[in-house]
């Protein structure tokens, strides 16, 4: 009788321990899965008005991308699903709305209903210092990005607008040490993000050193050299820098942009973008229809955070070497001043 009792006791204790272990592992696995899979994104909208030009059907905006619609306008809803495994993961980045349409402007190539894919790639951490990525990923060139929450200024620069937005291909990232990195990529021709209809390929490279990056793109005879970086001049003052040169058989652009940014309090910062951009040949970015046109664009932006909401009031002045705009009397003009008030919610 005693033997049976002891056996039942051991059996019950074993079953209890097994159930406890199973439950613990289940909760741990669920917690681990929750940490790995994430849904993030942004929603943005804005109001835009010309101060020195018309605001009706004749309204005109600078030739740079985004924030170019008159009156109250929509930006985009950006939803990013990502999964980070121990060795591999993926990112599915979807965009909806006018800003998203501009971001994937060269699509649809394959789908007649349109493309909402901003990024779609999988990656493999081959080792602690090597990562391989295959798919569609945002460009490695330039200071600014597509997401409005990741830029200080709401409107974008000419350098950003006329460089590539995204690439589709394979890239290898090498973390050489804490201060140096290297990226090498083979990609479809620029803007062909769904598939490759030409049989040609572009090649990219990036060298990173102490937070500064030199980028190279070679694409069917055209090439771009880009420097992106910045320096913390104090705890509250940051200076970002972007410079680029693009050439396609004598037609292209060159420019430089400075981004001084000052944090005046925990919830408010003030930033200025000063950009000089010049076309070589008849590149057509500024919109004058003339060769070798240049533009000086100065943008002053405030950034106030209220929890996950960002409010950005912005004043911008574009001054061109040739007539690229019209004034309030519909006469040709070399300058345009404008105001934007944007709301961005990041989740």
From TrEMBL:
Classification via InterPro entries: BBP2
Keywords on record: Signal
Family annotation (Pfam families): BBP2
Domain of life: Bacteria
Keyword Signal: yes
Signal peptide span: 1-28
UniProt KW Signal keyword: yes
Name of the protein in question: Beta-barrel porin-2, OmpL-like. bbp2
């Amino acid at each position: 009788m005693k033997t049976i009792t002891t056996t039942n006791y051991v059996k019950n204790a074993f079953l209890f321990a097994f159930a406890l272990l199973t439950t613990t592992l289940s909760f741990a696995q669920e917690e681990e899965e929750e940490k790995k899979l994430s849904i993030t994104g942004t929603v943005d909208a804005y109001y835009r008005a010309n101060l020195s030009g018309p605001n009706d059907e004749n309204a005109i905006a600078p030739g740079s991308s985004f924030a170019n619609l008159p009156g109250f306008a929509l930006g985009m809803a950006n939803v990013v699903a990502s999964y980070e495994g121990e060795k591999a993961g993926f990112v599915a980045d979807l965009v909806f709305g006018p800003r998203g349409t501009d971001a994937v402007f060269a699509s649809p190539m394959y789908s007649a209903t349109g493309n909402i894919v901003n990024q779609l790639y999988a990656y493999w951490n081959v080792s602690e210092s090597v990562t391989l990525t295959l798919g569609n990923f945002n460009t490695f060139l330039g200071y600014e990005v597509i997401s409005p929450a990741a830029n200080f200024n709401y409107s974008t620069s000419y350098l950003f607008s006329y460089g590539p937005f995204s690439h589709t291909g394979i890239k290898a990232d090498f973390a050489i040490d804490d201060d140096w990195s290297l990226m090498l990529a083979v990609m479809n021709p620029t803007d062909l993000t769904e598939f490759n209809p030409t049989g040609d390929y572009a090649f990219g490279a990036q060298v990173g050193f102490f937070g500064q990056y030199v980028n190279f793109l070679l694409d069917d005879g055209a090439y771009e050299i880009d420097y992106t970086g910045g320096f913390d001049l104090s705890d509250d003052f940051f200076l970002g820098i972007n410079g680029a040169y693009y050439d396609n058989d004598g037609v292209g652009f060159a420019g430089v942009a400075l981004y001084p940014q000052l944090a005046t309090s925990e919830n408010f910062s003030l930033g200025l973008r000063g950009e000089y951009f010049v076309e070589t040949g008849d590149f057509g970015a500024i919109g004058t229809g003339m060769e070798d046109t240049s533009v000086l664009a100065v943008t002053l932006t405030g950034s106030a955070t209220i929890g996950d909401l960002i409010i950005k009031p912005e004043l911008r002045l574009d001054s061109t070497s040739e007539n690229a705009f019209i004034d309030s009397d519909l006469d040709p003009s070399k300058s345009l001043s404008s105001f934007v008030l944007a709301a961005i919610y990041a989740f």
